[in-house]
Design goal:
The structure holds 2 protein chains of 2 kinds. By secondary structure, chain A is α/β, with parallel strands linked by helices. Chain A is about 50% helix and about 15% strand. Chain B has a domain at about 5-95. In chain B, about 70% of the residues lie in helices and about 0% in strands. The longest helix of chain B has about 55 residues, at about 100-150. The chains are: A alpha/beta, B mainly alpha. At the A-B interface, α1, α6, α8, α11 and α12 of A face α1, α3, α5, α9 and α12 of B.
Amino acid sequence: MIEFFRSLQFIIENGIIIITIFIFGSYVALAIFSALSMLNYIRKNSFIDYKVLISSPLAPSISVIAPAYNEGKTIIDNIRSLLSLHYNDFEVIIVNDGSKDDSMEKVIKAYELELVDVLYEQKIKTKPVRGIYKSRNKAFNKLIVIDKENGGKADALNAAVNFSQKEYVSVVDVDSVLVEDALLIMAKPFLEETQRKIIASGGVIRIANSCKIEEGRITEVKLPKKFIPRVQVLEYTRSFLMGRMAWSKLNGLLLVSGAFGMFNRDIVLKVGGYNTNLVGEDMELIVRMRRYMSEIKEKYRVIYIPDPLCWTEVPATLKVLGRQRDRWTRGNMESLFMHFKLFFNPKYKTLGLLGHPYWFFFEWLAPIMEFIGIVYFIIIAFLGIPNWPFFFLLLATIYFFAVTLSHWAILFEELSFHRYNKKREVLKMLFTAMLEPIFYHPFVLIFNIRGNFKYFIGEKTWGSMDRVGFKEEQNNKAKHKNPEFEKNH
Amino acid sequence: MRFLLVLIFIIITQTIQTGVYANEAGQLSGNVNLPAESISFKDKEFPSLKTVVFNKVLKNYGSFLLLYTNLTGSNEIIDNDTKPGIWQRFINTYKSSPLKVKTLIVILIYLLFSLLVLFIAILINRQIQTRKRRKKKELKIEFQEQLADFLFNDEADHIEFRGIDKTENRQILIDELRQLHSNLYGETSVKLRDLYFNLGLHKDSLRKVYHRRWDQKAKGFREVAQMDVKDANDYIAGFVNAKSPIIRVEAQVAMVKLSENAPLAFLDNMKYPLSEWEQLNIYDTLVYHQINIDSFEPWLDNENYSVVVFALRMIALFKHLHSAPKVKELLFHENPEVRLAAVQTLKPLEISEYISDLKQLYLEETHNLIHFLDHHRENENQKEIKSLGDLTIRKIRFEIVDTLQMIATANEVPFLTEAAKEPENSFKLRMLAVKILYSIKPEGQNQLSRMFEDADLQLKDMIINALQNTES
């Protein structure tokens, strides 16, 4: 019996060492790969003149789609910001997804809208559309507002995809702030490729909490004052600059953020648009599009743009963060399990052999194993049999590995886009990186586990996002809370 | 942040190890002069709760004490003179540790060291970059003021720039000159170019042209193109077919700008497909610098289809009516992208004599579509097929009907009626056909009235919509 346990222990120990090397190695490899890709990207785009795209008749047409639910507090500024994007052939489609507040009335008044009689094809089935609005004022002739019954974000996006007649659709969270050249920079990769079809491109998402915003434009970038948003700056920097950049290069990117992305409309329609039964509709769409392209044997790519094009407000409290993270977890799980056919399936090449398994093991399974490990460790600690010196040695190694990785991410940011200008801000980021594993990561783990639990019991609510509203935050006004953004299923 | 996972698992294996080798743990405790029995789990009888807690405390205490004593040497009762130093004791502890621990210690030391280096590097980099940026900003403003004075003040015939002995400062000046040169015409533009040459800045640009790094080369191509430096034309011409798309596009733009006689001659021998980005840049250069091309027809027979598509687009954009007969021939080209571009080219030219050719193409494309759908449909009821091949064919058919919008007469009523009635046609195409029919008065409108009775639901909606929108 003892022999059996010794063998088991040997297998586990060596297995763990292999996993350790693999995890550490994958992070380091992704970081190196990202660094090289980033360097290449910066060199490539350092002297590109995007202005040639602004007025060219050869530039592709784009519909900017922004679904809105109870965004009355910020919607006027946000639409203004979208309308002032630098691009020629584009339209802004705002979808009012059955808001219960006065956002529709505000928009009608501010942009002089009137009902228009337009007949178009409902290629993707959606909740009934109450009306299409356009402005009487020529200054707003790029604006279209679709007023429809509440059906959730995915349903709202589908309604806009149905209405759009442009080549590409750019999906934007209405409360996000885009930089003026965002469409130009995002559209360029679609034009460069000749051998493969670019089916989607995703941008980096930057954190706008504490930033100074005037008339829907970022006028001063500031590091968030509060710990929770600040630590998310690090998290996003690591994820976007060190992770997605590498995945894009490997053509294994499974996610284009719902906050800002651009898609080939024909392909979106071919795959049937967003799935309205899911909470993680953005990731699932990309996986489905990729799967479709692989199945019809068309060469394709999903592109990632590292430029800081989109700024958005992130949760500032643990409560809201928790809701967001458990929704993300459920979203990941939906896509992974719905498309489990991809798992190590050589037919799907990088998607099947690398992308899907990586997300399965590192994004879904790892936190669960981590949680089980912690529970087990607590039991063991209570029984008093851990080897404490070894424990602390290991704890220190892992802690410093995490902090070092975050410091690398900060260095990436410093050497590339350098958005936080004050010396105090960089110091703050460095120290935040030291606090993150202790005061932030455990909560994220708990939210992740809660997401897993909710997935298995079949809960499908979105959870609400308390938005301070950029303008209001600057004026230090009271917090606004949107009602529950729930899906009607 | 999945490192904790690894930590937990290693801890688990460690705890198993501790449990299984309780006797070895006894040895550990031996190091600190604790009785082995106090942490042994080998007792066959179940110990009381008091004993368990006591054992637990003692063992944990023992573990801590082990680390402490190993590092401090406090368990060794040795003469102070011969007692090893802390560094020596650390090395001793390291040497006596198992391989796993040794590895961890090495990794930890490496991480601590790299963290320190990173921390300092980030701060120093920040300091240097801030200073560099400030200096660059200052110089930029200074150069801008000097250049404005030089260009618009007749008395200022001599100009001296601070710090241009340094390459990076010269680059700031080149960028400013490029910027200004692209926005100026006539005498001032010539004056600026002369200054660029007099200061020897063209040598910097040429150095970049011949640089081995691709990004420097591309930057050099752009600079010489903007500042009209023709010394490297032959060299740049060799890069219009470069493997790197960045170099390629910059070389093409430079050739368009710098070639005096045949700016688009390089299109004759394109090795790679001309990307949309390349086409856009070439077109922009032609327009911006008012470069006149008499005819794009020579490229309509090119073997590279993307070049043919580009030439067709240029014919449409520059409204080369004289090329229409040649474009008409391409309506029946073997490549669907070329056919699509040909139809799109004829649209803005609004030539009614080609209507019959367009209608003929429509019929052929309908045949192609039916054949394609039959081939890809698994059953008759399947609406969407799993292929992208039908998209171009559908686009060609739509563009043909759209072309008729401007030139249709009563003769086109039967053709448009068929297009509107065909349920296999896309919604968009049927709607367009109805709209055009409505615009043909009175024949088209009468036809819509006649169609209404037998129309399917979708077509009825379209007819009503066309009627309402026109009335309003």
